[in-house]
Amino acid sequence: MQARRIKIEKSFVSSLKKVPQQVRQKVDDCLKHFIDRDAEHSLRPEPKSGFKNVWTIRLTRGYRAFYSQETDEQGTYSSFFFVGDHDSYHRF
After folding, report:
1. Consecutive H or E run containing 41
2. Which of 68, 78, 81, 83 is the most exposed place for a label (fewest CB within 10 A)?
3. For residues 77 and 88, what is the distance between their CA atoms, to the nearest angstrom?
4. How far apart are CA 83 and CA 61, in angstroms?
5. Residue ranges per domain, the chain?
6. CATH superfamily of domain region 6-91
7. What does DSSP assign to residue 5?
8. What CA–CA distance (Å, rounded) separates 54 from 68?
9. Residue 17: enclosing H or E segment and its boundaries?
10. Could you give the C-alpha distances from 10 to 15, 32, 38, 39, 84, in angstroms and in order?
11. What is the pLDDT tens value at each position of the chain, 92 positions in all?
């Protein structure tokens, strides 16, 4: 299976600075698994209801990485724009 392409937005980096250290430590591993398309079960990618084109992956039991699916001249990629607790999507 082909690896996923991702883009990390400035807003993702900014929000990452505001989460607990143990969450920050998980981000690189989770994004690597997302790109490699392994560990799909533990990441649990899912669309966020009530939002158009907003998805999440699980970083920890209570924290998610938020992304949207975008397209450019090379095809589809996932644009990660926010990290926060499970209910953070109410604030962006």
Report:
1. helix 40-43
2. 68
3. 23
4. 13
5. 6-91
6. RelE-like (3.30.2310.20)
7. P
8. 5
9. none
10. 9, 19, 26, 26, 14
11. 789 999 999 999 999 999 999 999 999 999 999 999 988 788 999 998 888 999 999 999 999 999 999 999 999 999 999 999 877 766 65
Q: What share of the chain is helix, strand, coil (3-state, %, to 5)?
A: 35, 35, 35
The phi and psi torsions of 9 (rounded to 5 degrees) equal -80, 155
0.85 exceeded by pTM:
yes
pLDDT of residue 57: 95
Q: What does the buried/exposed string (b/e) look like for 14-52 if buried means 16 or more CB atoms within 10 Å of the residue's CB?
A: ebbeebeeebeebbeebbeebeeeeeeeebeeeeeeeee
